[in-house]
Write a sequence for this structure.
């Protein structure tokens, strides 16, 4: 909870969602949460998604050098 920066209410909400969707399982005998295969697959897919978005943002910035967005062009006095 402390490392995630969430309060207890937020943490319980997210844990409930992850449990309901099968990304986590709780073992009451050990009083521990475990990531399921589904949860690990989601985390891996999300990492790939985040990498793709970062790459697209870099490409967009590179392309913007050729054609600045309307309204962002410099106006010079004639």
């Amino acid at each position: 909870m402390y490392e995630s920066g969430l309060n207890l209410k937020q943490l319980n909400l997210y844990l409930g969602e992850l449990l309901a969707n099968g990304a986590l399982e709780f073992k009451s005998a050990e009083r521990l949460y475990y990531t399921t295969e589904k949860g690990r697959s989601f985390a891996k897919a999300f990492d790939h998604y985040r990498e793709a978005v970062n790459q697209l943002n870099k490409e967009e910035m590179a392309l913007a050098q050729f054609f600045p967005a309307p309204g962002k062009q410099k106006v010079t006095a004639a």
Residues 8-64 form one domain. The chain has a mean pLDDT of 90. The helical segments are 8-20, 37-64.
